[in-house]
Specification:
Strand order of the largest sheet: 1-2-18-17-16-13-10-9-5-4
Distance between the termini: 5 Å
Oligomer: single chain
Bound molecules: adenosine-5'-diphosphate, magnesium ion
Number of helices: 9
Shape: globular
Number of strands: 19
Amino acid sequence: MHVTDNRSMSVLFLLFSLPAFLLFFSCEKDPGAPIVRQGTAMNTYVGVSIYDSGTDRGIANAWIDSAFAEIKRVEGMATDYSDTSQVGRINALAGLDSVQTSPELIALVRLGLHYGKMSNGAFDIAIKPLVKVWDFLGATPHVPSKEEIQAKLPLIDDHLVSIAGDKVYLPRRGMGIDLGAYGKGYAIDRAVQLLRRAGYKELIVDIGGKLGIYWEGTQMLDSTAADVSIRHPRRSGEYLGSFRMGTGAVSTSGDYERFFIENGIRYHHLLDPTTGYSMRGIVSVTLVTPDATWADALSTIVFLLGRDKGMELIKKSPGVDGMIVYESADTLALDFTAGFRRRFVMAESHD
Ligand code: ADP
Ligand code: MG
């Protein structure tokens, strides 16, 4: 293992090209009888687990039903894969008319515009036309023609998104907003809040590998509530390592979540609004933050900003810890924050 110790530590190991998934978690403490339920929403799997001991299973299951319903409600409001959601209507009426929206949706859009400013435009909720052209969720995604991409670039500009009172308007035909980079995190926060209000004190909500954890009396990286394992970005079925965490959230944004390889080149779903192609430079970003909206948003923002500016932003964000994984020749290398370096245990096979 090659270790460079400046303010961040780099750990190098061999790189393979198999796809891998994101992360899983396991409960560290003997939970008695946890109630663990799984479903699907937001184009991925959803897991809701309650670990409180002495829980009435019938009541807990009813609350978990409500948590799933809340996640579906957020999806129904914010998805851009429907013409009837609020976002879908905004997009369908681009260049034609403004759309009346709920205060909650307006707040989410404003949050996205704020992320855009914070990232100097690398993060742009008006990315939808490009996402559509690339169609990473489609059956056979392929590289679009240069012309197709060029034609979309003038539409990718969140400064054009106009909010007046409770109305949102996209002034150009073909424009579209996409809140996919923080929608899962937001849904996690809503579900965690609902279960907390119901009185549960030990719970985990997992949407596609992004986690919201509430474990009373614990703090982010200072506890033993859950062991979170990070999937290896290039080796199917293997893990990069793991860490322990308590109340807080964790999100990974990576080039191995939605991608395809064409002519030996990896194309993935995190797009550079200025070129129209996948953003290069980082393999994955894993962040631990107090809430899941922020974890989801910031992991995407850091990915889009690149290593240097990304790590700068992580370090100046209060209560955020994590790591950036990147390629270095034929190896992977890791940059850690000091807090995460102390907590992250590399999987043995990488020594
Ligand atoms: P995932 O939710 O798949 O784990 P992310 O949270 O990183 O991954 O979000 C990825 C999504 O962000 C993409 O599917 C797309 O909808 C959206 N997106 C892609 N590029 C950008 C961008 N430059 N700015 C804002 N959102 C983006
Ligand atoms: Mg995200």
